[in-house]
Design a protein that fits this description.
mainly beta; Jelly Rolls; 5-stranded antiparallel sheet; globular; metal ion binding; metal-binding; Cupin domain-containing protein
């Protein structure tokens, strides 16, 4: 058995990302789920650009602020305290607009933890 209590602030940010990403799942040694904590300022996006996954399901819990998500059907607003579920093969790009008044804090869970990410080009 194993138990972990982790303060996300103690996890070093992942380098070279367009926003602050803390790989909480890696710090906890998780093998069956990706778990990341993001702090996104106005004008920044959550990695990975506009993309979709073959098999991975993603869940975004917005702790603070309003997260914007671009999809082929249009832009969605995920308000503070809400959860967004993204099914496999569903293109999305999560971001905070440049003109936003506040940053966003969100916890993102992805399972299974795969590298099945594909760039999505809306014009194709």
């Amino acid at each position: 058995m194993g138990y972990h209590v982790i303060d996300p602030e103690t996890v070093e940010p992942t380098p070279d990302r367009p926003c602050v990403q803390r790989a909480v799942g890696d710090a906890a040694g998780l093998e069956n789920v990706a778990l990341n904590f993001y702090e996104v300022e106005p004008g920044e996006q959550i990695p990975l650009a506009y993309h979709y996954h073959d098999d991975q399901e993603e869940v975004f819990y917005v702790e603070a602020g309003d997260l914007r998500v671009e999809t082929p059907e249009g832009q969605r607003v995920v308000p503070e305290g809400s959860i967004l579920v993204v099914e496999p093969d569903s293109p999305q790009r999560a971001f905070v607009p440049e003109d936003a008044d506040e940053s966003v804090r969100t916890l993102v869970l992805g399972a299974p933890p795969t590298d099945d990410v594909h760039a999505y080009e809306p014009d194709e």
